[in-house]
Amino acid sequence: MTGRLVIIGTGPGNPEQITPEASAAIATGEQFFGYGPYLDRLTLRPDQHRIASDNREEIDRARAALDAASKGASVCVVSGGDPGVFAMAAAICEAVETGPETWRRLEIKVLPGVTAMLAAAARAGAPLGHDFCALSLSDNLKPWELIERRLRAVAEAGLVIALYNPISKARPWQLATGFKILREVLPVTTPVIFGRAIGRPDEHFVVVPLGEAHQQKADMATCVIIGSTQTRIIDRPGMDPLVYSPRSAEP
Amino acid sequence: MTGRLVIIGTGPGNPEQITPEASAAIATGEQFFGYGPYLDRLTLRPDQHRIASDNREEIDRARAALDAASKGASVCVVSGGDPGVFAMAAAICEAVETGPETWRRLEIKVLPGVTAMLAAAARAGAPLGHDFCALSLSDNLKPWELIERRLRAVAEAGLVIALYNPISKARPWQLATGFKILREVLPVTTPVIFGRAIGRPDEHFVVVPLGEAHQQKADMATCVIIGSTQTRIIDRPGMDPLVYSPRSAEP
Question: What are phi and psi of A248, to 5 degrees?
Answer without folding.
Answer: -95, 155
